[in-house]
């Protein structure tokens, strides 16, 4: 019998091509204010790839930049997508990663470039639609040789914490790296999509979950970096069963902010600080890559950690730099273009992520001679006095419990699968042997039906006898309790020496009992009979160190018609106190550190202080001499004296 469906994976990484530089495109948004438009633009295009801005050091000169593409204010969303992004989508269908991210100051139009509107969609919806279209074309052109799976994830980085936008309950997710140096986020939700309508169903509500706020420069400013991840898995259904995994990162970065212009205060100021810090670390990463430093500070920020594959990593990357033409944005435009020029020098090394996936069938071990014998064993029900043993057919053997687990795991190596198969076979064989032994033992214990009936009847009679004895003991204890209740005494006279010393070392609480209210009788669990009253006029031989003192004002308050405010108190015996103080004094004068640490409230440090004072000044004359030792507060000395006197009283 076979159990199909389990797949065995063997990872194979095939590196393709050579180094690929990061592609940089610049987009200039139109003016938002006509008054600003009259002053003129600070950015001027010099063709399809070059632009210039005025030099702030010299008005007569200009600074020229050249990139892979330059889009002016009249360029449409569709042209930007087809010329800069569309050629990256095919890489995801062939097991490679691609990244597109928008960079620029706040209010420069990054979110419009990436998301767009329903009438004029941006790069994100166009890219998802393009991938779905490409997969549909390959399915139609093929003969069913390849199977495709597309999953989408959406997250944001807000104040250096990763939040899942598809599942809002997933907060502060961690970023990890597997053994193949791939960056992933455990716990990030994935939604499988087959058409664009399903993507809109997940993306539109998730976009509303992104953190935004209003500033002086933008009515709906992004307060976080957002990343949309599109994962495409392409699996071959025939030999050699290849599997290609490609990922597309679509990143909308939050813009750098000048708080003097935005007027940020409170939480907005804290948000802008986190945004500027992450973008500053991104600049450090670019500088480290261009200068060839040994350490690239990817881990200094959550943003750079996620962009590790896009900037200097193993993916095809395209940066779309957004600029604002207003004169008030000149400083931001200058720094943004310098960053873009540095990013253009970065070189990535993409490769194809490919694994071999071949179907594997788990076989159950064939029934052996032992299994046949186990099927012929007579299985009997437990013997009862009235029901004879019944012969039943053997129960079915349990199904393999490791096989479903193996079917769900698709990344186990060959050696691990072989070990799990052997483990499953050994466990099933042992279960069969134990079943045979259990059946044999039950048959030997029960014996014949007649003998088992006599044995069980005898056990039943013994149980009834024990129940009668327990019932009689319970009645005797109940009668003793009623007798104690009739002869009940005040609470203080019902305390025996055992109960007193049981609670003398801990905090003793007493309830104030009014004269009109009768106290309840207390029965110690160690007493077999009623409690004996304690004579308060004579010292009990059981009480050696503590005795109970009756209040003096109890009688007076009763005669005056009051309720009696007196309380019973515990007082130490002076005679025994001196005797126990002498014992403590002998320990103090022993001159041994081990004996000193055996005292209550005396640790190793205090014992060394006491021993040093004893060596310099001679033996102690009384326990109170401890107060003369420097470093021992008087309160600490009082605790040491009280604790050890009581301890010696209990031990004597």
Explain the layout of strands and helices.
Elements: E1 2-14, E2 20-21, E3 23-28, H1 34-39, E4 43-45, E5 50-54, E6 62-66, E7 69-71, H2 77-92, E8 97-103, H3 110-114, H4 123-141, E9 146-158, E10 161-164, E11 176-177, E12 183-184, E13 191-193, H5 196-208, E14 212-213, E15 221-222, E16 225-236, E17 242-252, H6 259-262, H7 267-291, H8 302-306, E18 315-323, H9 330-343, E19 347-348, E20 352-363, H10 369-376, E21 379-380, E22 391-392, H11 403-408, H12 414-446, H13 449-486, H14 497-503, E23 546-549, H15 554-559, E24 569-572, H16 574-588, H17 593-597, H18 604-617, H19 634-651
Parallel strand pairs: 3-7, 3-18, 8-17, 8-18
Antiparallel strand pairs: 1-20, 2-19, 4-5, 5-6, 9-10, 9-13, 9-16, 11-12, 14-15, 16-17, 17-20, 21-22, 23-24
Helix pairs in contact: 2-4, 10-12, 16-19
Note down, in words, how this protein is organized.
By secondary structure, the protein is α+β, with helices and mostly antiparallel strands. It folds into four domains: 348 residues, 3-Layer(aba) Sandwich (Kinesin); 84 residues, no CATH class; 82 residues, no CATH class; 78 residues, AF1531-like domain (DNA polymerase, domain 1), CATH 1.10.150. Helix content is 39%, strand content 20%. It has 19 helices and 24 strands. Strands 1, 3, 7, 8, 9, 10, 13, 16, 17, 18 and 20 form an eleven-stranded mixed β-sheet that branches. Helix 2 packs across helix 4. The longest helix has 38 residues. It is extended and about 110 Å long.
């Amino acid at each position: 019998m076979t159990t199909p469906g389990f797949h065995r994976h063997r990872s194979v990484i095939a590196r393709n091509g050579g180094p690929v530089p990061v592609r940089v495109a610049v987009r200039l948004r139109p003016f938002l204010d006509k008054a600003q438009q009259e002053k003129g633009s600070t950015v001027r295009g010099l063709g399809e790839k070059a632009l210039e801005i005025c030099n702030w050091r010299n008005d007569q000169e200009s600074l020229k930049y050249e990139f892979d593409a330059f889009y002016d204010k009249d360029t449409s969303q569709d042209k930007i997508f087809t010329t800069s992004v569309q050629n990256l989508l095919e890489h995801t269908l062939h097991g490679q990663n691609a990244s597109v991210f928008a960079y620029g100051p706040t209010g420069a139009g990054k979110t419009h470039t990436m998301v767009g509107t329903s009438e004029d969609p941006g790069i994100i919806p166009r890219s998802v639609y393009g991938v779905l279209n490409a997969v549909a074309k390959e399915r139609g052109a093929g003969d069913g040789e390849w199977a495709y799976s597309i999953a989408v994830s959406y997250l944001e980085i807000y104040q250096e914490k990763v939040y899942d936008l598809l599942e809002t309950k997933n907060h502060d997710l961690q970023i990890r790296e597997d053994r193949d140096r791939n960056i992933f986020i455990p716990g990030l939700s994935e939604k499988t999509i087959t058409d664009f309508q399903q993507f809109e169903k997940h993306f539109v509500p998730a976009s509303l979950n992104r953190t935004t706020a209003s500033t002086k420069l933008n009515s709906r400013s992004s307060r976080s970096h957002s990343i949309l991840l599109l994962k495409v898995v392409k699996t071959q259904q025939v030999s050699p069963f290849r599997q290609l995994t490609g990922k597309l990162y679509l990143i909308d970065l939050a813009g750098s902010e000048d708080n003097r212009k935005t007027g940020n205060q409170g939480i907005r100021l804290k948000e802008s600080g986190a945004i500027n810090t992450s973008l500053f670390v991104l600049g450090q990463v670019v500088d480290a890559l261009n200068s060839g430093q040994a350490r690239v500070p990817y881990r200094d920020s959550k943003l750079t950690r996620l962009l590790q594959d896009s900037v200097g990593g193993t993916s095809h990357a395209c940066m779309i730099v957004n600029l604002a033409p207003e004169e008030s944005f000149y400083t931001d435009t200058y720094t943004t273009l310098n960053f873009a020029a540095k990013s253009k020098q970065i070189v990535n090394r993409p490769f194809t992520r490919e694994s071999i996936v071949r179907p594997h069938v788990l076989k159950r071990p064939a029934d052996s001679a032992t299994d046949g014998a186990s099927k012929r064993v007579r299985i009997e029900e437990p013997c009862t006095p009235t029901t004879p043993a019944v012969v039943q057919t053997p129960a079915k053997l349990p199904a393999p419990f490791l096989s479903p687990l193996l079917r769900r795991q698709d990344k186990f190596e060959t050696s691990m699968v072989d070990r799990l198969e052997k483990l499953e076979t050994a466990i099933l064989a042992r279960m069969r042997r134990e079943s045979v032994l259990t059946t044999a033992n039950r048959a030997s214990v029960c014996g014949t039906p007649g003998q088992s009936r006599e044995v069980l009847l005898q056990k039943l009679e013994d149980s009834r006898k024990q129940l009668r004895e327990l019932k009689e003991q319970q009645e005797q204890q109940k009668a003793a309790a009623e007798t104690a209740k009739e002869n009940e005494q005040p609470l203080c006279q019902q305390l025996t020496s055992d109960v007193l010393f049981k609670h003398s070392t801990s905090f003793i609480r007493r309830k104030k009992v009014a004269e009109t209210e009768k106290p309840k009788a207390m029965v110690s669990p160690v007493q077999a009979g009623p409690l004996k009253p304690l004579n308060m006029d004579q010292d009990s031989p059981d009480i050696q160190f503590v005795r109970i003192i009756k209040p003096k004002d109890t009688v007076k308050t009763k005669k005056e018609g009051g309720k009696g405010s007196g309380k019973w108190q515990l007082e130490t015996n002076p005679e025994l106190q001196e005797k126990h103080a002498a014992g403590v004094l002998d320990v103090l004068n022993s001159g041994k550190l081990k004996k000193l640490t055996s005292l209550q409230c005396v640790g190793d440090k205090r014992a060394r202080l006491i021993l040093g004072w004893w060596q310099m000044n001679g033996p102690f004359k009384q326990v109170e001499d401890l107060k003369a030792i420097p470093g021992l507060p008087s309160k600490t000395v009082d605790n040491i004296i009280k604790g050890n006197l009581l301890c010696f009283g209990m031990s004597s």
